[in-house]
Amino acid sequence: MDKFKSPVIIVHGGASKRVRYVPPATKSAVCKGIRAAAKRGYDILKSDDGTAVSAVIEAVSSLEDNKHFNAGFGSKLNKDRKVQMDAVVMDGENLKCGGAISVSNVANPVQLARLVMDKTEHCLLCSKKAEEFAKEMGVPTVSNDQLICERSVTLYGEALARQNQDMMDTTEKNEEKDDYGDQESHDTVGAVALDRHGNVAFATSTGGLNYSMPGRVGDSALPGCGGYADNCVGAASTTGKGEAILRVNLATKALTLMEAGQSPEEAACNSIKYMLDRVGGYGGIILLDNTGNTGVYCSDNWMSFAEIKDDIVRYGLHPDESKYEQL
Question: How far apart, in whole angstroms, are the C-alpha atoms of residue 77 and residue 241?
């Protein structure tokens, strides 16, 4: 029997309802970006000293650097027209975790999250104090304006216009008018990995909801919600409307189902369906167990993902539309 496990990584680019036309060039760029992120993480896993933690950090950092994803340089804008980002990482070997919440001047929040895990006795740091810690650790900073991309400006403008129209039209009733963010606004990025030594890890990062209330915190940086990792079971990273994920502790739910005997594929499907049944929430999840079996599921119509196992890449813009290629 082989001494080492076969490494596995899964990366997602966020679940959302795409209600508008997506140009072929954008679809191609998203597929290219998600495959590249998975490849960067997988390369680490294939190295002699590569760890699951380093792999998920590398993969998520790649997505944070890509304007086509809602994290880092592709982050959404809140009502103050500011970027406000959250990120988390967790090591399944020892259950250590680190998160950064409501940071606005760090290009790669997931790297800051790792420093919180590795260099402090805490699990979460937030806002200005998290940014001060980043400066102390020598993390490169950027201006908030540098994190704003054209897509986010467009979505912000559309949400503002809808709100202004509703203020003028006081006779129109709509139960959803309290959320002026578009239906595409809850996409997030994340990764899960299993390394050669049998350790699992997850990382999740988000640029938040479009046109959200300043100070709003979603699920992404909270272990048990935005993801979880435990060598005894496996690892998960979630995506969707944060408030719904928080209410059902989605990542914990999925791992509990696996612990009860469900396969990652079954647990991914059933945890997402549970969230829809209980709180009406849509979203997606990537999941693997501690032997390398995987599950990917999404109840929205868009969730880019890439999975690499045994040098085979499975990827797509939705789990139901998978493509395969050999590395």
Answer: 16
- Return d(Cα 190, Cα 182) in angstroms, integer: 21
Of 60, 77, 216, the closest CA to residue 150 belongs to: 77
What single letter denotes the amino acid at residue 206? T
Amino acid (1-letter code) at residue 221: A
The size of the chain, in residues, is: 327
CA contacts within 13 A on the Cβ side of 18: 14
13, 209, 262 from 187: Cα distances, Å: 7, 8, 27
Amino acid at 258: M
Ranges of H-type helices in the chain: 24-46, 52-64, 109-119, 127-136, 150-168, 242-248, 250-259, 264-279
One digit per residue, the tens of pLDDT, for the chain of length 327 reads: 357 889 999 999 999 887 667 889 999 999 999 999 999 999 999 998 999 999 999 999 999 999 999 999 999 999 999 999 999 999 999 999 999 999 999 999 999 999 999 999 999 999 999 999 999 999 989 999 999 888 888 888 888 888 777 666 654 444 444 343 444 445 799 999 999 999 999 999 999 888 889 989 999 999 999 999 999 999 999 999 899 999 999 999 999 999 999 999 999 999 999 999 999 999 999 999 999 999 999 999 999 999 999 999 999 999 999 999 999
Q: Which residues are catalytic?
A: 188
State pTM to two decimals. Answer: 0.93
Distance CA 70, CA 84 (A): 11
User: DSSP class of residue 210?
Assistant: T
Q: In what order do the strands lie in the sheet with 302-309?
A: 124-126, 96-103, 85-91, 200-206, 189-194, 8-16, 302-309, 312-316, 323-326
